[in-house]
Design brief:
With about 220 residues, the chain is mostly helical. About 55% of the residues lie in helices and about 0% in strands. It has 10 helices and no strands.
Length: about 220
């Protein structure tokens, strides 16, 4: 008997269920009695649950199985479906594209959130609070810039950028910033402890030294 090649078989519509499930759906469609077709459809749904382990571990909406049954049958299946019969256009309708937020970031090396924080700092009426916010922003800007660039950002650049982003409302004294190191990075690099070299004290050498001293005391007592 000559075997049937996969290239000669109908294409599997839903590969996660396999060819045998598709053959059973085709058989159900040939049954003339609607009640019998419905009974077989319910039995096939339970069989799919048994054959698909993922459905056991992750319980899903049971309506999806019936929708898949109609997809396999090419929407030509007349049974008493416990759910509304799905429409081909609805199931295969492409989702709407989500518009990517387009916004011009003036200072990309700081990030968009810095601009939001600058706007919030501009709302502060108290000059002291506004200065504290400007100092904190300067620390953030210096830290963010240092995370992506090896060179250090000069404080004068941060002062000028803060002034420009805030339309002159966040104006810092550059001499004070440098003198008090106000824009120091928020996160300092931790220095790693260097391991002891070969010449460092070791437990084994210490025991050996004690052993020598003990033998020397014995000789002296003899």
């Amino acid at each position: 008997m000559i075997g049937e090649y996969n290239s000669q078989r109908p294409q599997i519509i839903l590969k996660e269920y396999g060819r045998n499930v598709q053959k059973l759906v085709e058989y159900i469609r040939t049954v003339k009695d609607k009640e019998k077709r419905t009974e077989l459809a319910y039995t096939l749904i339970e069989l799919i649950k048994q054959l698909t382990p993922s459905l056991k571990d992750q319980p899903e909406n049971p309506q999806r199985l019936w929708d898949d049954l109609y997809i396999i049958a090419d929407f030509d299946l007349d049974v008493n479906n416990p759910y509304p019969v799905p429409e081909r256009d609805v199931l295969f309708k492409k989702p709407m594209k989500v518009a990517y937020p387009q916004s011009n970031i003036r200072y990309k090396h700081y990030g968009k959130n810095i601009e939001y924080l600058v706007k919030e700092a501009m709302k502060k009426e108290d000059p002291k609070e506004r200065e504290e916010a400007a100092i904190y922003l300067g620390k953030l800007m210096k830290t963010f810039y240092g995370n992506w660039n090896k060179e250090t950002l000069d404080d004068s650049v941060i002062v000028n950028d803060l002034r420009a982003m805030s339309n002159g409302k966040l104006n810092m004294d550059l001499d004070k910033v440098r003198e008090d190191n106000l824009f120091e990075k928020l996160y300092r690099e931790k220095k790693q402890l260097k391991p002891l070299g070969n010449g460092g004290p070791r437990e084994g050498g210490h025991r050996k030294f004690k052993h020598k001293n003990k033998n020397r005391r014995r000789r002296d007592n003899q």
